[in-house]
Design brief:
7 helices; 2 domains; Leucine-rich repeat, LRR (right-handed beta-alpha superhelix); 36% helix
Amino acid sequence: MSDQLSKLPVELINKILDDVSTFDILTYVCLVNKRLRTVSLAYPRFRLDLNRFSFNKKRQFDKLCTQLVYLSSQIASLTLTNEDDATIPAKIAYLFSRSITVNSTFSSLHSLSLSHVDHTIWDSIKARLTSFIALTSISINFITDMKASTPLFASIILMELLFFSSSLKRLSLNTFFNYPPVMATIDPSRTLNT
């Protein structure tokens, strides 16, 4: 019996993988046959939603983050947002601390969605913003700051995003309190005066 999957062009397989979750690609599609494993691991547009992984199972999350280091240049979107998950800050910090060893970390990242961002989390992200050379969209929900006023902290994040990320086109910032969210479409030809 002939394996028809092995005869499909890579472009068609990638188009099919566009509709499959990253978790399913890495845990199931890779196991179908040798060719699908090769094509799956080379897939250039992983959309990673880490909300479904429990940080309480530290060993499982550690293993996932370790594997992601090898795929980081193929991740197109990264989501760590869950209003009800108090472990989101720990997940963000752990993920970015694990990925610091790779020079091309998230070089294809187009979209980043985070929640529960405080000063510590923001500092760990800000240090890597210049390496996110393809980042066009960022969404940050539940900005909190215990050191100063939350609106002031949100404005600092906005300024630093505009300064450090030259590829950014869309952003959304939402504070924890009842302040209106900041949503903007950014002119890519903008110039910043220093």
